[in-house]
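Risk register update: the risk of archive-format incompatibility is retired. Evidence:
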Amino acid sequence: MTTATSTTKNRLREFLPTHWGEFDTLLDQVFGPNGFRTTRTFYAPASIWEGDNAYHVELDVPGVAREDIELTFEKGALLITAERKQPEQDRPGWHEERAYGKVTRRLTLPDSVDPNSIQAKLTDGVLHVTVAKTPESQPKRIDVN
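Archived output:
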């Protein structure tokens, strides 16, 4: 008695040399298992840390223009919105790993921040935001007599 098993096979593999298996993987990534391209969502990884005098936020936003970044501070929260726009021309292609769209990051900051001190700088695709602490909340050196 023989049992028939159903397997899916990429027939292109039959025509390619064995070391071209990576090409088969690439085709699967491009066109997906159902033959459709997948879309990716724009994501902006962040680093957040506290210094002696300020809080710092860095956000990776490569390909985002200054005019497509918005920062607001309201009710103790810093809201950062960045948008990477898709190219305007039609670019039919085989593979697209770049993601487009809008990303929003919301950070609740402690009461010890000075909202008037918020500064932002975009350099080489990295947004660096600095929020100073109020003078009352900064460490103070006390002299010993």
